Amino acid sequence: MGDVVQVAAPWVLPAALLLGVAALGVTALDGALAARAAGRPASVGAQHPLVETARLLRQRRRTTVAADTLLRHVAVGGFVVAPLLMVAVVPLGAWVLADASVGVVWFNAVDVLVWVLVWLAGWGPNAIWSLTGGYRFLAQAMAYELPLMFALTAPAVAAGSLRVGDVAASQSAVPYVVWMPVAFLVYCTGVLAFSVRGPLSPAGGPAISGGVLGELSGVDRLLVLSGRAGLLVAGAAFAVPLFLGGGSGPLLPGWLWVLVKTAVLAAVLVVVRRRLPDVRPDRFLAVGWTVLLPAALLQLLVVSVVVVVRS
Amino acid sequence: MAVRDLLARWALRGAAVLLVEVPGGWAVRVAVQRALTARGWREATSPADADALVVCGVPGGGWDEVLGRTWAQLPGPRARASVRAVEDVAGVLDALAVSLGDDDAQRADAASRGLAPEDLAPGDDMHPGGMELAGGEDDLRDGLEMDVLRVPLGPVLPCWPAGLVLRTVLSGDVVVRGRVEVLPGGARGPAVEPGSVDDVARRLDAAAQVLRLAGAVDLAARAVRLRDAVIDVGSSTAPSGGPSSRTSTTTRHQERSSLALRRQSAGGRAPSGARRRHGAGEGAPSLGALRRLHVEKEGDSQHFDDYLRGVGEVRGRVERSRVLAWALRAGDVATSSPTSGAESDAAQASAPGDLRDVGLDGQCRTRDDVRTLLLDLLDPDAHDDDPGRRTRAALEALPERLVGVDVVTARLLVAALDLRTDALDADDLAALAPRDDDSDDDSDDASDEHAHHGHAHG
């Protein structure tokens, strides 16, 4: 594998477009699965993201009494920015938007930023269901964040670098998922948790009338919905250089392998997400601290020992 | 403009509709839900999410204000309608689509009202927008100063019993106390015969709501499809009328005699294993008579057997799913329950009157109940002899059961109780009528008082 090249700034636009298409893709898959479960043609459900986009573009933006408008705008805008910041350090074959020497830490910092965004989205509207969504998400975050952090550390320790390109290059023979399966699973749990939807992410859902989404309409809602789909995609994309060998693979060029691996992992996450019921925060906290965290630390220990023995 | 038309056309393929079920409007609500799915539309989860407001049933007194406020919260383009009979559903949805697609009218509506809602009253630092700030109370779990909110749950909430208003005091997202009120329908719903098509369908509907609230979306969708299948079978079997028409007298009679068991409100119910079971071949008793009737008419029992198998599958998945049990049930969480000794004593000593102990314990019990109740709803053998009495008893016990339970669990429990507010009689409704006083100090007493009234009349 050759070195990763940092591309010029204008490439951010095509990257954002690609991320948007992928976000449409996972939403379409989710819609198709939902339609099939309801006994409707999957093709109708697959149109869901386009239909919803058209609907929300037509809809007015609504505000609430004594809302904290500034913080709400920060949250809504932030949802679109966060996934972009995540994929900025993911190499697409030989190219990367930002070849940061601390790429792994950068990703971690952005996923903590999601806490802030969800909390502000909950706080901003000055409404009970939004606030409840924010509360619940923060409680859940206490459960997934530390294990996720240590899971991210494992590949970095093995590669001896925090640069994402180096981590990808160091697994040309065997992808890290093979000998760090626990870290990979903990990482995927974290992705499901920070994507603000589904079983591990109790910020929304019908039980709390939409939660942080409950008071958002129109473009605001569209941005948050796109952002959370983007977070899932970004989480899947970042797993590729970290655990799945980056662009390495037979026949296809590196950039295509990255896309294929991202798409497959994102699809698996969507399917898993649909199959699990919501896990309430206190339960997840118990699991996070008694199962995920020790498991991630043990994995890290194993990796560290292997690295020391090898050198 | 072509772009505007294109957007409107696509937007109308997936309109979101906020359904408000009035007591007595169950059959209409289900018919609307089915029509929504058939169109590719969906139910909205909150007013901000909704394009249209559809009232199902005939609203009684007290609804006008609620509906008016809800309507004002729809962002627009918006449309509203009221459906009183199952036959009207298709026409009403067509009209909604036309109204939502009418750009000029929607623009006029948008121009007539501001984007920001008006303040409730002249505000100041302690009353932003005229609203009270969150308060504090001495005896609450974490002693936070501004943590206590007064929040009415319902009557406009998805997966929520028709007309039920639970006036809660929340500490964070935990219910500190609550008071039950019911907004009545304008016309009493048709009496539901125990074990009739309606009863079976309604229990499946309640199960679907629980599953949906629990986030088990695909299982919920299956329960909804089974519900619809039952309604279809029922309407093809019943002599006349829609799904809300009664089954024949023979059916009713056979069911009455064949089944002594009735569903009980949670609390002192028997474990599901102890319930009488029947061989799958002969069908469940509550459905058995219906099945025979269906066979007579249609010449085969295919639908029924499919249905029974389907319910069995869903129930089996709920029963077997460890994840669902883990998500719904108690377990090891109750470490600080009063029985667990020193730790609990220490907690109590450090925070006298701490609600946490009660809370965790109550929560575990409640989740346990939700799972039991859910399995019960999916039991083809169980049926409901007197929904009115059962609902009244459950409503009386509800405020106490919800103390220390978080709102999501509270909503799961309310859904799992399958409360039939349309089966309450006039005396119950009078006792549960909305009251103006917002006094919170004596609301515990007030709910007790309600309960007593209910008893006296019942």
UniProtKB/TrEMBL annotation, chain A:
Family matches, as InterPro entries: NADH_UbQ_OxRdtase_su1/FPO
Class of the enzyme per the UniProt entry, highest EC level: oxidoreductase
Family note: Belongs to the complex I subunit 1 family.
Sample GO molecular function, one term: NADH dehydrogenase (quinone) (non-electrogenic) activity
Ranges annotated as spanning the membrane: 12-33, 70-98, 104-123, 144-164, 176-196, 229-248, 254-272, 284-309
Lineage of the species this protein comes from: Bacteria, Bacillati, Actinomycetota, Actinomycetes, Kineosporiales
Family matches, as Pfam families: NADHdh (PF00146)
Protein name: NADH-quinone oxidoreductase subunit H
Localization (cell): Cell membrane; Membrane
Assigned keywords, A-Z: Membrane, NAD, Oxidoreductase, Transmembrane, Transmembrane helix
Chief subcellular location: membrane
UniProt feature coiled coil, ranges: none
Membrane topology: Multi-pass membrane protein
UniProt EC number: 1.6.5.9
Domain of life from the UniProt record: Bacteria
TrEMBL record, chain B:
Record field: compositional bias (Acidic residues): 437-447
Skewed-composition ranges (Low complexity): 234-251, 262-273
Start and end residues of each stretch annotated as Disordered: 233-288, 334-360, 433-458
Name of this chain's protein: Uncharacterized protein
